[in-house]
Amino acid sequence: MEVANQFPGLWNLIKWTAKQGDGQVFYPFGEDPAGQLLYDAKGNMMVTIMKQERKLFASHNFLEGTADEIVAAYNGFVAYSGTYDIDPRAKQVIHHIRISSFPNWVGQDQVRYYDFQNDLLLLRALAIGTTQHELTWQKMP
Predict the structure, then answer these.
(1) How far is the C-alpha of 110 from the C-alpha of 131, rounded, in Å?
(2) What is the pLDDT of residue 126?
(3) Contacts of 29 (CB under 8 A, 6+ apart)
(4) Which H or E run contains 69?
(5) pLDDT tens-digit profile of 22-77?
(6) Where are the beta strands (DSSP E) in the chain?
(7) Burial class for 67, CB neighbours closer than 10 Å (0-12, 13-18, 19+)
């Protein structure tokens, strides 16, 4: 199957690990984060990831969180969307970001190195300092 045909679909996050330069591994959003990644056949993509157990706001209005509630919620959630291109020779998928919960990524490209293993998609981000992030996604039927 052509690589470009393997991406489209809905993927559920199985694991997110971060390996530091000294070999230590940690889980940025815990050992059981929730996440979904969507690629469509027209080149659009979106991703959302969150910590499973985030503290609820006292208010039922999402616009009325306290500063502490907002910081805690933000630090347990990331989302972005845009378009994507695939470079099969480099084994890269490039996310062209239009919308992001992290404002610094808007208008930027995020490169991910990919590998397919059966119904799993492994995505590695470029190292942030000496830390290598890898996310494992499982394709939904």
Answers:
(1) 16
(2) 86
(3) 16, 49, 50, 51, 52, 76
(4) helix 67-74
(5) 999 999 999 999 999 999 999 999 999 999 989 999 999 999 999 999 999 999 99
(6) 9-19, 25-26, 34-39, 44-50, 77-87, 92-100, 109-117, 120-125, 132-139
(7) exposed
Identify the residue whose tokens are 């706001």.
57
Identify the CA nearest to 78 among candidates 116, 39, 135: 135
Tell me if residue 15 falls in helix, strand or coil: strand
- Greater model confidence, 12 or 127: 12
Amino acid at 119: D
Nearest CA-CA partner of 121 in 30, 12, 2: 12
Q: What residues contact residue 46 under an 8 Å CB cut-off, 6+ apart? A: 37, 38, 79, 80, 81, 82
